[in-house]
Amino acid sequence: xxxxxxxxxxxxxxxxxxxxxxxxxxxxxxxxxxxxxxxxxxxxxxxxxxxxxxxxxxxxxxxxxxxxxxxxxxxxxxxxxxxxx
Length: 85
Prior knowledge:
Number of domains: 1
Largest sheet: none
Radius of gyration: 11 Å
Strand content: under 5%
Order of helices and strands: HHHHH
Shape: globular
Number of strands: 0
Low-confidence stretches: none
Oligomer: single chain
Mean pLDDT: 95
Distance between the termini: 25 Å
């Protein structure tokens, strides 16, 4: 994945999933995203989805997996996120 593709995908998935997480995590995710700190936004988003047991689609989880792998982050929290199909 090229860096511009990473930025584009990060923005898309953040815009899509941030509204589903609680106000405990959402401001941090949106602030990090707004500042272009996608590494922080994506890892916090994944952690929030896992912690809050938010169900996402398989496609959304696959998109997050690609971003987490690009960042070379552990997939522990991502693997705990449930999917709806």
